[in-house]
């Protein structure tokens, strides 16, 4: 067991790796009533093709998400979601492009709930009947996404950024792709991706780390298996496939997402630095106190519905900036001008220092949320870095790295824009 | 946690939730006004215009720079509707000094800035800047229109609007587009001055500072607050019964793939002396959790929908049940929802349903203590309803809720209006009227 203290932020992380390869991280919070636990596998919507035992396996889009829906079924007919709820816990799960996570929060019976979590996630049970029943439910969910402008605009952007990478397809798959899924597919993928070596357990709250390690060891025994290696296809470079896509939906005002690809650094620590640099650079470039945002806001081109994010997963990296605007094309044009200006003039020293201060405050705020902290730690484990290192590392980011990030990664030819316009297309 | 509430100035209440367990502190300053059609928009616009600039920090860039200097302090306009009370104001959150270089204590500086934004806006000739007013007006109109974008929540808004069409509750927290259009900088300045003079103000603080220090900082920040005669005559009109004998039915077509059914209920005579513990447990058994009757039957057993859940608005005495369904499943889903309610009216609530609901509700309440945002909302709402207990006390009351208390709630609720949003192609197979 390892104990790491992060003095500046007042956090202590207890971590260990079980003989079967399961990584466990615990943050003890005796002053809180809540316990939050997440058990996640390094397996998401993008992990469709993979090597196991030296053999390439191909699966249809949507298996990871389908598995997530079916994992709650237990062989004796019980449903784990129900059992956890009956215990007063608040359980749920999600599947992203890069991971599947099962979690709960509770204020009582933590140990029972944790045992249940570890048990059901490691107990596959599927029949042709339950699989075909679920196909109907997931098809409904997929069709619900078709009414959701947020879903459409996002996948339109990804399909402009990527030619082949599976990240461009919806995590839930399509009605057609999920119709190919059988109980066999689910068993195979569970076996490949749900072995402890491919997973991480993270707990924060009113718990004792020792007990979490013990319980995990009791419930999840077994040998260390081979970790599957996902195959995401050839490197697609940093230029988008297309740069402009517009679709019409019944929304009140046009929505837009501007995106750019960033090739992730190979070294995990460098990747964390790369992420922090990108976040700080974007804060200065388009953040709420940036000249760009405040000017466009005052001119009526942007409103409060505006944000940016930096994502690194499934061997990809991207910057996404988006919001609502009556003139999305004009916003893009202004962004390009701002990028050129920063390339030529750089950021000034004072706004850099203020951005760091603001970022520190925002990150401290982020530490209040157990779910946010645990999911970041899990993400870090899968990517190979220590998420809690982010705050100390923040002070090492250099002004010049921020400038060159903007100058190199956000040039005009690297940007793609996805727009949802109001009403219907002219015939 | 130490909880205290006191009146620190004429009509200004301060609730202090002192706790050492958080790394950030928060404070909200809320001006309370009666939610009314005529004034909802103009009231709501005030904090957004204030946030554009003050006399010391005349534009957003200057304000944001100041907030960045205070380690990313966030001070944002907030407009809420709690029952028929409209709460407008500013919500701030800022890191605790202990985790900052040189242990900088931010509370006094943050409050100074809050006071500056609230009381000393950027003006010309004593009036708000027309530019700021016009631009925030447009943005508020956009925000009202953008409710359309999420069909699921829009359907619940539409159901509430239709159900409460004779009540002020139907007015959204931002009012209406037309009312926004009619605002100008002169009217808004006049209204702003009235609000400062008349509105009761509730301040909620949660953080590490001692009550004395908070009180002093608030008093310093609000020293120039112009107070007149305070208007305490605000409150919520709770309608107990449905408007007509049979539930009203409203159907609307929109470009959606999946239909959205929302059923609006009055909580009924139980609202004469509402028992929040019983109400929460009732909601959890009926449709508020993944072990609820609606989830287990409408979704899991009959597979009529992708989601089916219920939610309460206790201050106004309402319950909304919402579900995403295919258009041809309307009758069947509605009947099943009523059938499940009938089961509860008859007292058919199993021990495991009851204990799961009680455990879930109590756990939610206890975890309120772990989130500043949740604490702030809980205590603001309690103060407005004149209730004094905290989440832990309420969690204890939940343990005493019996099946008959839950059945009593079920017998009290009454369906008032059924709203259905369906796709444009679904109109021909029209057979759903009742």
Structure write-up:
The complex is a heterodimer of chains A (427) and B (434). Chain A is an alpha+beta fold. Chain A has 15 helices and 15 strands. Chain A has helices spanning 63-70, 80-86, 110-121, 128-146, 149-161, 175-178, 183-193, 209-219, 268-286, 291-298, 328-345, 349-366, 370-383, 390-394, 399-409; strands at 2-6, 11-17, 23-28, 35-41, 49-52, 55-58, 90-95, 100-106, 199-205, 229-230, 244-249, 255-261, 306-313, 316-324, 416-422. In chain A, α1 (63-70) crosses α7 and α11 packs across α15. The mean pLDDT of chain A is 94. Chain B has two domains: 2-221, Cytochrome Bc1 Complex, Chain A, domain 1; 248-427, Cytochrome Bc1 Complex, Chain A, domain 1 (2-Layer Sandwich). Helices cover 41% and strands 22% of the residues of chain B. In chain B, strands 1-2-8-3-5-4 form a six-stranded mixed beta sheet, sandwiched between helices. Chain B has a five-stranded mixed beta sheet with strand order 9-13-10-12-11, with helices on both faces. A two-stranded antiparallel sheet of chain B has the order 6-7. In chain B, β4 and β5 (85-95) form a beta hairpin.
